[in-house]
Specification:
A hairpin with a 2-residue loop joins strand 3 and strand 4. 50% of the residues lie in helices and 8% in strands. By secondary structure, the chain is of the alpha/beta class. The strands form 2 sheets. A 5-stranded mixed sheet has the order 5-4-3-6-7. Helix 4 crosses helix 6, helix 9 runs antiparallel to helix 10 and helix 10 runs antiparallel to helix 11.
């Protein structure tokens, strides 16, 4: 114990009071404890500050990551209708200009325009002209003599096509009552009209529906056209009534089209957004080589097709894009649109031009399409094509990025539905027919932005079904609409 005292007491200093030394030691230890507590509090405070700073750093790192992701879309290739499933209606003007001047088709090496040996086309003279005009000179340019009695020899013939004077033909029908001599009864051909005595016939009604459904004009512009060109002044309410009448007359034909599609072996499907009555609905198309049916639904799930076509789906080969609704349905067979896949592969090639994986798969798909086009009626086994695709899908592409992995998984999922068009000549390789059929809806919406009523949307889709079906049977849209009023 005396050694302890020597630590705090000089060697030569003698300890005379042990209690005083203990008090000094106690005070010293108290000061040391206070210092330690103060330092501990300071350390704890510093630790809290460090943790707060770490939280701020983590928050800044997360914000940095989000901002980098947002900025990355400006550095990556822009998605448009040429390299993705983005519809042309959502493209910018610049993208639209590029699309109209650039094609996904590979150059053939041929010069543009008519190829060697091409006969060309020109207007043919009508064998029965409405009017014949003789063009003969009156005097001789050599001697100045009259040619009134000269011999006339036909040199050549030209025809000029013109539109007749656009003036409405007004027919007045005088209705008579015949009085029977036997019984004195007053007999008329039909009951007297209770509405206006002036009516429009089927030609005017057909033109209005044609301008609305085929040329996508709103009612106001149709009324203006009739007034300025023909001098007619029907109200917009009359135009709506004529569209209603054509929709009503088209119902038997719509039911027949639906029956034919349900009994078809190969059917193309597609869907697109349809703004109607301040909400987003979905327009669907089901089409074959000879028939087209468009209809509206409140969603884009597989239940829409199930409710519309029922068990007939199980007897169909569906040609669609890779929308999940089609994968959930039990079709007899399925063909994925090759054009969609080629556009997605084109985007990957633009995203990373240092890899050739996407180019190899695109070349494989184009080669298969060319094989089908070169042999349109042949049955081509797809086993060798699937083997080549599998070899490409086995390659490790993890270093290329997430989008490559996503497409690879998608190709693996739909692998069995890629080359079915090779084994069945009736199956097309793409879904372009359905996309072209529903494209007119987007043009209508681009002009009018929306349908103001459910009736307006349904009328357009049903009448457009009639028009597209008529075109597939080599009938003009106007004649098809005119037939609805003459039936």
């Amino acid at each position: 114990m005396w050694d302890i005292f020597r630590i705090f007491t000089p060697v030569k200093e003698k300890v005379t009071d042990i209690s005083k030394v203990l008090q000094d030691m106690t005070a010293e230890m108290r000061l040391m404890r206070e210092t330690i507590n103060q330092q501990y509090s300071e350390i704890a405070k510093l630790n809290r500050n460090i943790e707060a700073l770490n939280r701020q750093l983590r928050k800044k790192d997360e914000e940095n990551t989000r901002l980098k992701e947002r900025l990355s879309k400006y550095e990556k290739p822009k998605k448009n209708s040429g390299n993705s499933s983005t519809p042309p209606s959502k493209e910018t003007m610049k993208d639209e200009i590029v699309r109209r001047t650039k094609s996904l088709r590979k150059p053939s090496g041929k010069k543009p325009g008519g190829q060697e040996g091409h006969d060309g086309h020109k207007l043919s003279c009508s064998p029965s002209p409405d009017e014949i005009i003789d063009d003969t000179p009156n005097y001789c340019t050599n001697c100045g003599g009259t040619l009134a009695d000269a011999e006339r020899v036909l040199d050549y013939v030209t025809q000029v096509i013109s539109i007749p004077e656009l003036k409405p033909v007004i027919k007045e029908i005088r209705h008579y009552v015949m009085i029977c001599k036997n019984c004195g009864g007053r007999i008329r051909t039909a009951p007297r009209r209770k509405s206006n005595d002036v009516v429009y016939d089927a030609s005017v009604k057909s033109l209005v529906v044609y301008l609305s459904v085929v040329q996508f004009l709103p009612y106001g512009r149709i009324a203006s056209f009739l007034r300025e060109v023909f001098g007619l002044a029907p109200s917009e309410g009359s135009l709506v009534n004529w569209v209603k009448e054509s929709k009503r007359n088209a119902q038997p034909a719509i039911e027949k089209i639906k029956e034919y599609i349900m009994s078809s072996s190969v059917v193309g499907f597609d869907e697109s957004g349809c703004y109607c009555n301040k909400r987003l609905d979905w327009a669907w198309i089901a089409q074959t080589v000879y028939y087209t049916l468009l209809f509206r639904a409140d969603g884009r799930s597989s239940e829409v097709l199930t409710d519309k076509f029922g068990d007939s789906l199980e007897r169909m080969t569906a040609v669609t894009d890779r929308h999940s609704a089609y994968s959930a349905l039990q079709f007899l067979n399925h063909q994925v649109c090759m054009a969609h896949l080629l556009r997605e592969l084109q985007y990957l090639s633009e995203l990373n031009d240092k890899q050739d994986w996407s180019d190899k798969i695109a070349s494989l798909f184009r080669e298969a399409i060319h094989e089908r086009n070169s042999n349109p009626s042949a049955i081509i086994p797809k086993a060798s094509w699937l083997e080549r695709l599998d070899n490409l899908l086995k390659l490790n592409i993890c270093n290329f990025g997430k989008k490559f992995e996503t497409l690879k998984k998608g190709l693996i999922k739909c692998r069995d539905y890629i080359f079915n068009f090779l084994e069945d000549p009736m199956i097309p390789s793409d879904n372009n027919g359905s996309e072209r059929g529903i494209r007119k809806l987007k043009i209508k919406l681009k002009d009018s932005c929306t349908f103001r009523s459910d009736f307006g949307a349904d009328a357009f889709l049903e009448l457009h079904s009639i028009v597209e079906t008529a075109k597939k049977h080599n009938k003009t849209p106007f004649n098809a609409i005119q037939a609805l009023f003459e039936a």
